[in-house]
Design a protein that fits this description.
heterodimer; A: 288 residues; alpha/beta; Rossmann fold; 9-stranded mixed sheet; 10 strands; 37% helix; 18% strand; B: 113 residues; alpha+beta; hypothetical protein PF0899 fold; 3-stranded mixed sheet; 3-stranded antiparallel sheet; 6 strands; 32% strand; elongated
Chain lengths: 288, 113
């Protein structure tokens, strides 16, 4: 069983197709070919082997590759995490509508089953790729890398990755994003940051969504923010209602600032490469 | 249940190590898991056994070494032991305490043959 990328058991599907790997999996599941050597009758000598490696090393390698790709193309990538039903997809469709004609936006949708969310995004005119994780409870960097091949993002885009609705597992998996954005709706209760501290600790921003419902609820906004800062003193907080549009200006400004930074970084990198090229050409000319 | 993916990550590291160090069977696996890593040891054991079935680590013993959660208190500035991310400072009662240790999840070593 290989749940990290779904290879071997066909669990992960991107746009309904099981993805085909271009590399050969080193492990062969289920048939025990690697253990054939142990069936001797004599006792084996055992020895110790030091590994000292992070369990997430493979995922982190894929995440680093995604991050490099984003940096080279000026792409501002965000990993949106929340419980199911926090209003992520509505927030995305509203965000896309507001940026229409001004910015290029694409979406990667993660869900265990169905392409309903990607269909909702496509209805706005933005390109979207649906990743179905099957039994998997989170997206990983490898799945995102495959989804990127399908998207063919132009330079200077905004990439919104909507993770599987789950406040636990996606916290541990870096996808190569600039930030995790935790979306918490006010119908969920203000103690969520304490109940699921890993997610709020990993997030750069908390969007407190559905604030149009506050008059009907007993939700303590300052207490929720205090709880979030207790697990993550650096977390930014933006109050939004995707339905009424309240707070959307602040959210869009935050996105815009992030995108500008990503473009600037790319421009810097291009400048550095050009300078290096000029230096090498000069050196070459001197030798010739 | 991201422990399932983590167990799979462990298997991949074991397979890489098997190639590099030329072994065909794993008897014991030592993991180092921090108190603040968000990993449930019991779930990890369950998933470990399931994921290792039919591989070179089928039936391997899993040893989990827990490392202490540590953090720096924003109020008194001291480094203190914490078991949860939102625990207040045991010295001054202040918060937040920013985690500085106990977040690791590593494969430490293997007993192989």
């Amino acid at each position: 069983m290989c749940v990290t990328c779904g290879c071997g058991d066909g669990e992960t599907k991107i746009e309904g197709e099981a993805h085909v790997h271009t590399y050969t999996p080193v492990h062969e599941h289920g048939h025990g070919s690697l253990i054939s050597g142990h069936a001797h009758s004599h006792a084996h000598d055992t020895r110790m082997v030091q590994v000292e490696q992070d369990i997430l090393a493979k995922n982190n390698q894929y995440a680093t590759a995604n991050r490099r790709r984003f940096a080279e193309h000026g792409i501002f990538a965000l990993n949106l995490v929340s419980s199911p039903g926090s209003g992520k997809t509505t927030l995305l469709t509203r965000t896309i509508e507001r940026f229409k004609g001004k910015r290029h936006i694409a979406v990667i949708e993660g869900d265990q089953q169905t392409s309903l969310d990607a269909d909702r995004i496509r209805a706005t005119g933005a390109p979207a790729v649906q990743v179905n994780t099957g039994k998997g409870c989170h997206l990983d960097a490898h799945m995102v890398g495959h989804a990127l091949e399908k998207l063919a993002l132009p330079d200077d885009s905004l990439l919104l990755i909507e993770n599987v609705g789950n406040l636990v597992c996606p916290a541990a998996f870096d996808l190569g994003e600039a930030h995790k954005v935790a979306i918490l709706s006010v119908t969920e209760g203000e103690d969520k940051p304490l109940k699921y501290p890993d997610m709020f600790a990993a997030a750069g921003v908390m969007l407190l969504n559905k604030i149009d419902l506050l008059p009907y609820l007993d939700f303590n906004v300052p207490l929720c923010i205090e709880y979030a800062r207790r697990v993550n003193p650096y977390i930014s907080v933006i109050l939004t209602s995707a339905t009424t549009g309240e707070g959307m200006d602040e959210w869009l400004e935050w996105l815009d600032a992030g995108m500008k930074q990503a473009f600037a970084q790319k421009a810097n990198e291009v400048e550095t490469l050009k300078r290096r090229l000029a230096e090498l050409e000069t050196a070459l000319a001197a030798k010739g | 249940m991201h422990e399932m993916s983590l167990a799979d990550g462990v298997l991949r590291l074991i397979e890489d190590s098997a190639k590099a160090n030329n072994f065909s069977r794993v008897k014991t696996v030592w993991l180092e898991i921090g108190e603040l890593a968000g990993v449930e040891a019991e779930a990890m054991r369950f998933c470990f056994d399931a994921v290792m079935k039919g591989t070179l680590a089928d039936g391997a013993r899993l040893e989990i070494v827990t490392t202490e959660g540590k953090g720096r208190c924003f109020s008194c500035g001291k480094t203190v032991a914490i078991q949860l991310r939102y625990d207040p400072c045991p010295l001054c009662g202040g918060c937040p305490v920013e985690p500085t240790g106990g977040m690791e999840m590593r494969v430490k070593e293997l007993e192989v043959e």
